[in-house]
Write a structure and sequence with these properties.
single chain; about 350 residues; alpha/beta; CBS-domain; Spore Coat Polysaccharide Biosynthesis Protein SpsA, Chain A; 3-stranded mixed sheet; 10 helices; 19 strands; Nucleotide-diphossugar_trans; Mannose-1P_guanyltransferase
């Protein structure tokens, strides 16, 4: 995201002559029109001004007479792939970023997107599970390779991470591992590096970390379960982890559970309150983590270990474990109805079709 957008702001009553100055001085070929609360009202480009001049609009007129009042925008938690697609399809070089209230929060440009560096953090994709709850679909296909929107769900996860700049991947494999390896091979098809971690015996949801080469994890590592569909902003996740430097950051999802009855509170046989169908709210793990190198190095090779036990061990040792709430689309594909929902949602949430 370009950080110089505050220098190209205009008020709706600024005149066209002022807009010309802002566009020239800002060197972004665009000015952004906002109200007093910072809400985006429109954009102005050199082309908008030229079209206004052709309509004989005086340069002393307010900029609102020539601005584009319905510009294309990106949401605050946009993805690099979405920005590239929008900029490419709209044939524009820049697009404003607004939050849920319509307030301008930034400007993305095609030039900045193309300059975005690759991220050196390794990524570990967990793809060794049996997927027993999805049988018979997984009788002859590992769960991460089940197709969603015409591609294996693991491929969607991989491509999302690539779009954020990650290129060093490790994939844990066990059940029907050949299908995963034959599909992704060394990653060159996607321009990345993929190495495989072979679990000869199931090691739990964190045990495979102990099989990673020690020199491969010298900075925080992203760990992602291979059976989720999400639009989480991995860049924001990693930035949050780097800013606070905990032992681990867990992506969490709010889960609401409604009791379908009137709940009784009591003291002995005396009823003190009745709540009709109360809703209880919890945070659950979303299957995405950032782990500090020392956490990974603490996992012993060929030792079964589940992720909650690893994280509880870190907390017991006095190390910080943070949560990163995921408000973007997220679906854990664990049961048949989840898989059916993924197929239904694919057209609207997948980024690469």
């Amino acid at each position: 995201m370009n950080q110089a957008w505050r220098q190209i702001l205009l008020a709706p009553d600024d005149d066209i002559r002022r807009a010309i100055e802002v566009i020239d001085e800002g060197a972004k070929r665009i000015a952004l029109v906002v109200d007093g609360a910072g809400r985006l009202l429109g954009t102005v480009t050199d082309g908008d001004i030229r079209r206004g001049i052709l309509r004989h609009v005086p340069l002393e007129s307010p900029i609102s007479q020539v601005m584009n009042a319905q510009p294309r925008t990106l949401p605050e938690n946009y993805l690099r792939a979405d920005a590239l697609q929008l900029l490419g399809s709209a044939q524009v070089l820049q697009v404003p970023i607004v939050n849920d209230e319509g307030v301008l929060v930034g400007l993305e440009t095609l030039t900045d997107l193309m300059k975005r560096p690759r991220l050196e953090n390794p990524v570990f994709l967990m793809a060794g599970g049996f997927g027993t709850r999805l049988r018979p679909l997984t009788d002859n296909c590992p769960k991460p390779m089940l197709p969603v929107g015409g591609k294996p769900m693991l491929e969607h996860i991989l491509q999302d991470l690539i779009d954020f700049g990650f290129y060093r991947f490790y994939i844990s494999v066990h059940y029907l591992r050949e299908q995963v390896i034959n599909h992704f091979q060394d990653g060159s098809r996607w321009g990345v590096s993929i190495q495989y971690i072979h679990e000869d015996n199931p090691l739990g949801t964190a045990g495979a970390l102990g099989l990673l080469p020690k020199d491969a994890v010298q900075r925080p590592i992203i760990v992602v379960n291979g059976d989720i569909m999400t639009r989480v902003n991995y860049e924001a996740l990693l930035q949050d982890h780097d800013r606070h430097t905990p032992a681990a950051t867990i992506c969490t999802r709010q889960y609401d559970f409604q009791v379908p009855y009137g709940v009784i509170e009591h003291e002995g046989q005396k009823i003190t309150d009745i709540t009709e169908k109360p809703v209880h709210r919890f945070f659950v793990s979303a299957g995405i983590y950032v782990l500090a190198p020392q956490v990974v190095h603490s996992v012993l090779a060929d030792t079964r270990l589940d992720m909650p036990d690893l994280l509880k061990r870190e907390m017991a040792n006095g190390h910080d474990v943070r949560m990163f709430p995921v408000h973007e689309y997220w679906l854990d594909i664990g049961r048949m109805n989840d898989f059916e929902m993924a197929q239904h949602d694919a057209a609207s949430v997948l980024r690469h079709e």
